[in-house]
Structure formats: C-alpha cells, structure tokens
C-alpha cells in the first residue's frame, strides 16, 4: 500500500477524496491536511461532513495537520490537493519539492513542464516530469488534472479525434452546483433559475481541451488543430454536468460509426487495469431522453461519462450533435486526481 | 371594444390569455370555450386556477361553452386558440370559417397561406390573408405564432439580420417547465436534474426561425439564407426560457455595435403603439451574470426578451455569443397571439 | 432460495422491489407481473427504468406475465404487491388464495384477520394468519405493511411506548415526491412551493399508528391508549419523508434517557438477523441540523430511520419534540414488504 | 409627504423596503444608509439588485450615506431598519435618540418600553413610547415588529383569541429561503432536501406570540394565558412561510364559526385605512390543497395571510387544525415595519 495524504481534507472536494480512497486497493490515507484552525483536531471533530454517505471510520481518528510539507510524515508518497486556486499556487509547488502531488487546483495547469493529464487522453504528458524536476529543482513532482467540465467533454472527444478530423466544436453547458463549492451558489440565486455565467469556465474549457487533445512532442504540447467555443451556465442540479455538443467534421461520417467509436473507446488506463478506470469510460445511450444528470452521473461509480442523443445535425454539412453527462466532483475532480495518481503509481513510483 | 373569445379557456395557456386580456384597452373577453365536460358551468366552477395571480372577477361568471363555432355569439370577432396541436388541426380551421383566429397551436404553422407571424419580425405575412380566404373558402382567417423558444430567439436575431450578414447559428436552450403544460413534466423527472430532450422542439426552432427571418414575396416566404442548429433541454425553472446563442457573421463586427442594434430595435408594433408591444422589445444587460429567468422573465410584462453576455467568440473569426431569456408563456405563447391580434385589429379589422 | 414474484413490476415501487431483491440472500425473483400491455415482453423492453441505479442484469430477460394467479409458476412462494389501491383490493386477495402475498397496497390494511405488520413493532400479528386462511378459505395468505409516513413514525415511537406512557402525539410531515408515484406531482406544482395536502394520508397515519402500537390479543388488535393528530404536507424532495413530532408523556422523563431508548432499540428482526433488518433501526443524531432527507434517507440502506433534535418542549410539561427522516420508498414501501416476507420466511414457510 | 430613510438599504430586506415604499402615498424615501464601503456611491452603483422587479428609478441617484445619525438630514422623520441583529443592537438605539425608528431587527424586541407591535394585534403597545422616551432619554423612539414566522401565525390567532379560549397550540413551520438572507442557505444544502433547524426561531415564535396576544396594562405586557410549542424547518421555497397549526380550545367550537371569525377579522389598521393594510388581513380558502406559498404569498400585495384546511382535529376533543401561508419578507419583514410606521404616522406624528 502507498501512503497518501489529502491537502484541504475538510472541504467538499477533500471529503470526496476520502470517500473515493476509502477501501482503495493501493492507496491508504495516513495524512489529512487542512488550515491552521483545524490542525490538531481529530478529523471527525474538525469536519462538517457534507456527503450523503457516512464518513469512513478509518479517517475519523486521524489527527489533522497543518498544510505544511514539514508536518507530513516522510512515508507519505502522494498528496492529493483540492484547495482553492489562489492557495494552490503557493502550496502545491511547496509540496512538490518533496512529494508527488496530484492536484485538482487550476493554479498550475499548463504551466511549463507541469502535465495537465487525463490518463485516457494524454498520458504521454507524464514524460514532462523529468524536465519538471530539473527545471524547478524538485525532488517530488506535480501533476494536474483539468477543469470538471473539460474532463467530461474531452473524454468523449478523444475517440473522435483519434478517428475523424474535427473542424469546429461548440459546447453549451448546464453545470451542477457542487462545481462552485459547498457555499458557492446561494439557494436564493438558483431555485427556479439559471445562472448564465461561471467565472473563467469558458476560458478553461476552450484552452484546456485543445491542450489535452493536442500532440505532445519533445516535452511540449502543441494544441489540437481545431477550435472550440464554450458557453457555460449553472442549473439547479446537485452533481453532474450536462453538456450539449455540436461538432463539424471535415467530411460526412456515419452516426452509428461515431457512436461505436465512443462506446468502444479504451485507452491506457483500461489496458493497465487501473483500479478507478471504467472498462469503457464513455457510455453511449440510445434512449431519446438520456443522459440525465440524476440518472447517469453515477455511471461506473462516477468515473464514466454518459453520452446520448448522438444525431446528425441537419442544419450543417458533415455535422452532428450530442449531449453528455459526467460527474463533476468524481470524474471531474477527486476521481480525476486519483486516476492520475494510479497511473503514476503504476508507471513511475 | 372588440369582443373576443378563448378556445381552451380552462387550460394553463387559456388562463394566461385571460390574465393578459384582463383590463385590455381594446379587447373584451365575452366567450370562453372548453371541452364538453366544462360546457355549461360558470368559468370559476369549471376551472382549477393555476396562476399565482387571482382569477379576474370579470370572467368568473361567464358560462363556458363547447368548442364549436355554432356556440359562439356572432359579435365575437377574434378567437384565441390555445389547445393541443392534434385538436387544433381540426378546430382552428373550423373557427376560421367565420372568425378571426389567433392561434398558439403548432398544427397549422407554415401551412400554405397561413401566416406564422411575430409583429416585430415579419408583419408582412399578414398579406397572405386574402389568398388564405380564397384558398380555403373562409370568411374568417387564421394567423399563427411560432413556438415559444423560436419567438424569443427570433426577436433577438431580427435586428442582427437587418444589419449584418449571418453565416451560421448554434443555439442551446434551457427551457422552463411551463412549456410542457401543467402536467407535462413530473417533479420526479426534473428535480436535481436536466432532461436533454423536448419532442419536436429542435425541428420547430430550426425551421420556424428561417421562415420568420426570411423574405416574403408574392405570397410566399423564402427561408433566410443561413442555417441554424438547435439543441433543446428542460431545466427546473417554472417560467422563462434561457438560450445560449453562437453566431458567425460574414465579417468582424463591433460588439458594442451589435449590442446597440439589439437594444435600439424597434419595428411596426412600436410604431403603431400596439398595447402589448414593449417600447424596446430586446433589453440588453451589461451585468456579467444576466439574463436570468427568475429575474428577467417579467421584463416589459413578459413581452420583452432580455439579452446579456454579448461577447466576442475568441474561438472563431467573425463570431460572437450571447444568452437570452424570454417568458415562454407570455411573449412565447399567449402574449404572442395577443400581439398578433392587436396588429390585425389595427390593420385589418 | 425462495422463488418470489412481483405484482406491478414495471412501476416505480416495483422497480424498487427489484433493486432491493437483487442479490438477496434468500429470495430469487423468478416472476414479474404487470398489466396486459406489458405481458409477453422482456422486462427490459416493457419498462422505463426510473431509478438512478442500473436495472439488474438478472431481470432484463424475464418475460413479463399478466397479473393473474394462473400465470404464475407454482414454485413461486411469495408475491410482492405494489399496485394502486383500487386494483389491489381485488388482485391481492386473488393471489392470496394460492400464494403468500406481501402487499404494500393500502386496500386490505386493518381488514379482519389481515396483519398490518412492521416486524420490529407488532410481529405477533402474524398469528392472525391461521384465522385468515380459515375465514377467507385461502391456501395462501396476505400480510400488509403500513403507509410510508406511518412506518417511519411508528418505528421511532415503539421504543417510547415500550418504556414510557404517552399522553398525546402531534406530527407534521414534509413528505417526498416519490410517495405520490412517478407521475403523482407535476413539477409545476411543487417547484418553489409546498402542497399542504395529501389525500387520506392524515387518516392513515392516525389510525394505522394506534393499531401498530396497540395490543394484540386473541386475534384482535386493541388500539394504543393515546391519540395522535397528523398534518401532512408535500415538499420538493425526491425521496425521504421528514416528520416533526411533539409528544406529551404522563410524567417528566430525561431527554438523554429518551434518546438512549431510541438509539438502542432492537426487536425480533434484529434477534433473528433478518437480512434487511438494520442492527439498530433507529439512529439518533446529535448534530443540531439533522436529520435531513438528502443526507439521512439512505441510512442502513434505507431501512433505518434517523432521529434528531430530541429536545425538551419548554412550552408544555412532560413534553419533548424531535424530527425524523425515513426513506419512504425503501423502509416505507418495498423494503417494508420485504422485511415482512423475511419474517414470514423465517417463522412460517 | 413624510421623508423617510432606510438603514441597511443595499441588503435584501432594504431592497424590499425600497420596492414597497416606491409610490407610497405618505412616505417618500430621501435617505439611504449603508455600510462605509457603499457610502458616497449612487444607490444604483452601490447595490446588486436581487429582486425580480426592477429597481425604482426614484432611488437610483440617491447618494448612499453611512449609517450614522449625524449623516441624516433633519427633515427625515422615520428610519426603517433592516440590519443584522448584532449591528441593530447598537445602531437602532443610536438613531432613536433623534428619529422615529421602525425596526425589523430582533435585537431590541420585548426590551422594556420598546413596543413589539403588529397593528392588527397589539397597537396599544405604542402607548409605551412616552415611557420609552423618558427611560432612555430619547427624542425619537423605537418600535419593533416580530419575527416573520410569528407575524403570520399571530395574525391568524388574533381573531381566535378574541373569540375563543385557547388551551394549547402546536405549530410546525416550512419556511422560505429568503428568511435566512440572500446568502443564508447554500443551494447545496437545500436542493432535494429539508433543513430541520433554524437558529433561535422556535424560541422567538414561542415567546413573541404570547407577548403579542397578551394583555397590555400600565405599560407592561402580560403574556397570553396559554402555551405554544414550535418546530421550525427550512424548505426549498423562495418566499412564503407555510405553517401547520394545531389548536386545542377549552370547548368544542364550530369549524365554520372559526373560519368566519378569521375571514372577517378587521382591526385598527382597517378602521384607519392605513395604506398597506389589507381590507381583510386573513384570507380563508376552501380548496383542499391551499394555501400554497407560490400561489398565495402575494395575497393583498404580500400583506395578507392565507389560511386553509381549517378542519376538526379528530384525534383530540375541542381541537382543530389549519395551515397558513404568509409572505415572510413582506408581511413578515419590510411590510410589517411599514405598517407600524403608517400607524405611527396616523396616531403619533
């Protein structure tokens, strides 16, 4: 078993890390880090548990320590980071001096030599790590995962990019409340309402997707050769981002072939049998009214992305549309970092 | 005062007609039509009132009659129709033999010689009426209004079409529950959820928009010379459709100019001062997180469409994006028929 | 393994039976019954699956048969019934002629010789079965479980009745949407709203509770010697009924003692180790803002009832108050029938 | 016209004051007070407007001043206060030295010589003002209104207390989100959920109700001679508190008589024709499923309380039950202070 720790353990994403790592076959939580005011308390006493499953017994008695590398036992190999981006900009690199950091924060994404990685999409970016350690003079290293809405989208685009030539992509999201953090969206703001704006979300989707689907050569990522425009909106859903996708290809392709390429998509995590990797990460549904976030977010324990309504776009040549649902706090956050860590554990540690 | 009647008066759209026509300066409700089981009852006794305003006193004692032209007093000049499409296919033409029918039903839209009209967008289609009366041998006539999601979109597109050259449009909707009728969406289906499918909605948006924005010549409409692709979704909002719009023009245009063209848009109903016409039917907001359905649906008593987030699309040349909110049961249904009737009253009766 | 069948298998409660019986240690679903229009189809083809977990593989290929005792294989021992009350009034007795019927329907509750049973509360009522078979001349027999809101309440009252003398009870409910069936509550009716009425619910709670907590002697139930008044309301919650309870005892009791009696409550199902019985069916929480339906409905796989805010009632002598949450479609419906069947299987079959 | 000001003008209750005072026949807003950071700005620039009606033109250009009595023009006669209780404890008395303060804050309620007043219920408590000015050596004075849930309840109890003898009252609330302030309840906490706890709410309801319905003699209030127990819960409703009420009288009374006493209730504000007073402040509905917060909260512009389901309590002698809905931010907050000010204006100024 690999000893792991969680930075930001008392927050909602931190709680999701704990839930997902409980009973993990390879990782054992030994260290929980949080702010000064929680330090020294038992985890159970320091935390208002927000999830609908019970707090795992195994963490209740762990004494929370301050988010400082000196406070972490040297046996710990991997630290999962789930702190707000402004803190992460300083704290994640601090820990990367000594430890492997799998971070869900946006602060360091796409910085030079820092892999932004989805194991099914661009695992080759882990090769940046050598350069990273040299460039920053770190003994540990830092791997990031993309934004929640980007991950779900990119997982469904990867089998398309592998098989077809994309000209352009438009995506319109209907994102869940949990993406904004527990206190992010007041109930007065969203009940009987839609909020048509999520700060920096469109920018992240547009840039991260092209990076993830681009080519990695000689330590550098070259963006994918098409563009993507996003419009991002918040709806009254607890968990599970829904995205409407419009794609123009360079030539007409058969809809059944497109569906089949998605449904049969497998990649490195599936080959390696990584513990959190679904056998088929993209599920394609034929029912006319799926996917729906409440019904489909938990597919493959929240690590699958469900696609439906794959249909020809009658308005434009060589075009088709679909809708996807992915669990934003599992595949889109904590589960993404864990899958990265599983790949690191298999390939590097 | 013009005597008017409502076909389908006990249903939710019928109730909206009543609410909007109460205190109307030119129209007076004298006749309420409904199914056989309601016929003969006082309107108050026949109806489960579903709106959050009170039932107007003026209709409570009206005796409901069966939806049959023979039951309608000859003094009635205009009948508003708000019945399900399969019934409307037979009933609307039946009434058009003798009366002016302003119908919200989809059954007869875009049929030969039947105007599908938004007074701000294509009032010239009312010229079809002469041909219509000859072709069908009617003494009355029938005018229809578009689908709720189409109306809101087309109102915002009209000033663009008038001033710029559009290449392509993508629109992704987040539609309110009331669009499906009172019993249309079970609460078990939509709470903490999105339903990514609305039967026939995408088809209607794609075809009706091009008709509305097309050219009317010699009694025939020629579709607008661009295409539009829609993806339609239901969210947990009572009233007010939200739509994310992506537009590619033929050349770069200034965003402020685009906003100004929308905000200053006025057309025939504004010139004529039709009672239900807002002074400016498109409201442009600068706040980063508007429009929102709960806050903006009632703009101009529900007859305005609110636009926000008008922004350059960084992903594609000559492109921009925006979000709109329109009240689906007012501007998108009952109010649309009423505005058509006001135009007819001013120009034809 | 005991072969079991489900009457009303395609409906929402039927689906809950299937979900709960999948992987059951003693029961195996071999027969699925539904209306004529589903008969002859594979279960997967006949059913719109409404739950957020996947349809179990084991039932997909079962051919649905009509709800007629003659269509059921004689190997089947227990039939679970989850059909609307008006159908159940005829169908449940029909099946009881030959089979054991564990019914969630209200039709036959508290009829002479028909046990209305919660295994933790009044298992002795199963002794009625001999008389039942004689009285109705049945080879099988029929056991019913109470109404969803009654079950949750009564489970928490049982340890109180066993230890204290109750003078009076007031209960005010905030009930979940699923209690009304999938199509029971339109979304237009409940979003941003409360519906302060549930047909016959108050009557059921008031009469069933006193029966369940009464004394069983010589084949007859004598109601508990206190009264209970209920006010029942529907709120925008998918699953999980919340109930506010006010109790007056005959003398002052210690709040900690009351909590302890609830938290340590165990009864026959716990002694027998019935598969669906939680070790402690009443969970008592100390957090000031619990129980909450979304966080607590799944306690003990939905078979536990969570109590919180047990506090002295400062307004009245000898009085205290608390709030409870129970899962209405598990402990309050399908799970209730299954626990009855487990008790029958252990004690009678 | 009386010049009035609003302390806490940029907050949600402050905005409600502005909305309700716009077009008021006797009061004119001339002064808007807020925190230091808003001071000096135009109101429109200082405020994120949260209501679904537009910000009145008349206040947009008013320059916000700091909440300090020295900053207020001496022409101002009445200040409405809607600030958090901990600030109000200091600020409200500060202003009362010079001005009339109508406060919605709980800080000073039921303090010696400070009237806690609902004009329909206990207008005689305004007689305390002389003593108040002497005791505190103020030139102005301070009048408070009760808690939102208390006001709605007490208005319905007043005609009962006037006509019958009450033995005991139990009330269970389902309260709207706006009662907690705009940021009070995170959406993650309440969607698909109930929160069964509102800090200090039960204590306020239990004590304030007895004060309001008590006897005022010689400058002192003697609590009403019965008790009331409350259990308070938050539900996913934007505005409008729903309350289930159980009442035991000293003898059997006719239900129709009880309804009639409520429906015909009129008091001093009705006699005086105060501008915000509804003709009949308690509306009694006969529909089985009313009142509902979304449909009934706006009755009498939010100043009426709607009662329904008035029914005999079969469980207990001399008992009956009902459900009420009142608008918590209008009749329960801003509107309550305004009605107090209207009474003061009529009787004292």
What does this structure look like?
Four copies of one chain form a homotetramer. Chain A is α/β, with parallel strands linked by helices. Chain A folds into two domains: 2-147 and 334-347, Rossmann fold; 148-327, 2-Layer Sandwich (Dihydrodipicolinate Reductase, domain 2), CATH 3.30.360. The first copy, chain A, contains twelve helices and 14 strands. A six-stranded parallel β-sheet of chain A has the order 3-2-1-4-5-6, with helices on both faces. In chain A, strands 10-7-11-14-13-12 form a six-stranded mixed β-sheet. In chain A, α1 packs across α12. The first copy, chain A, is globular, with a radius of gyration of 20 Å. Chain A starts with a strand and ends with a helix. Chains in contact: A-B, A-C, A-D, B-C, B-D, C-D.
